[in-house]
Amino acid sequence: MNKLLSLLSLCFALMLSSFSARPTAEGYKVGDKVADFKLKNVDGKMVSLADNKAAKGYIVVFTCNTCPYAKAYESRIVDLNKKYAPQGFPVVAINPNDPIVAPGDSYAAMQTKKYAFPYLLDESQQVARMYGATRTPHLYVLTRKGNDFVVSYIGAIDDNSEDASAVKTRYVENAMTEIMAGKSPSTSATKAIGCTIKWKQA
């Protein structure tokens, strides 16, 4: 009996350790206030949400260099910034991948990208964990409320991860249209489609 209890205790301990070694899907929900961060941009400067005093909000997207889905969405992310940055909602891109697991997502590789918006390295992966990001791309629309930023939309950019010309529903653009009109998005959360984030190995 004692041996059985010991074995069960060991199994339970191993189960708990396996859960703690993995990031959970927990993170920000729509309506949550986000904590600020300070991450290194590809130009070597540190960037935080508080830096842009004129921002009405942000389109924060966890993405990377190597994921086929991230590559397919790259031009669409660029277009979101072109459309919404002039209206006060610039894009902030964050690469959460561990370069040991995905060498093509190293800081040096990130610097080959010439975006008109910040492309930040989440070296510790703490920002991705804080947000609850699980995939690349995984997008969060933040709206300013006083001095804070609140999550207004979470999920996918649109409904076609392969072919931009075949998109039928533009989730982010629809949400932004409602946000800009002072409304809450009627669709505030969708399932992010993409590669799983390459987490650091325990």
Q: Which class do the helix and strand fractions yield? A: alpha+beta
> What are the secondary-structure elements, in order, as H or E?
HEEEHEHEHEEEHE
Principal-axis shape equals globular
| Overall pLDDT metric | 90
Number of strands: 9
Short description:
The chain is of the alpha+beta class and 202 residues long. Helices cover 28% and strands 19% of the residues. The chain has a seven-stranded mixed sheet with strand order 2-1-5-4-3-7-8, covered by helices on one side. The protein has a two-stranded antiparallel ribbon with strand order 6-9.
Can you give a write-up of this model?
- There is one protein chain.
- This protein is an alpha+beta fold and 202 residues long.
- It has a single domain, classed as Glutaredoxin (3-Layer(aba) Sandwich), CATH 3.40.30.10.
- It is 28% helix and 19% strand.
- The protein is built from five helices and nine strands.
- The strands form two sheets. Strands 2-1-5-4-3-7-8 form a seven-stranded mixed beta sheet, covered by helices on one side.
- β7 (138-145) and β8 form a beta hairpin.
- The longest helix has 20 residues, at 2-21.
